[in-house]
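Hi there, hope your week has been kind to you so far. Would you mind checking whether the tokens look sensible for this chain? I owe you a coffee for this, so here goes:
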Amino acid sequence: MFRLIIDKSGKGKAERINTPCTDQISIQTMTTMLMGYKRPDYLYRIGRIRASEETIDMLEDSIEQQVPYISDYF
């Protein structure tokens, strides 16, 4: 398990932890949030995130709301 720590400047750091954590999110759901496709609150409501309200609020405040954009050249 990992813990995500985001400081006041917005810099994030993931650290490995040994103690169990009740907050859980898959890498697929985390990618969905970080790419701006869906907001943490929505993902929580549909059951993709298991976390405390405090954690959801932290994610909402930490992840910028932008239009998703993927540049693909073939």
User: Anything to note?
Assistant: The longest strand covers residues 2-6. DSSP finds three helices and four strands in the chain. The mean pLDDT is 88.
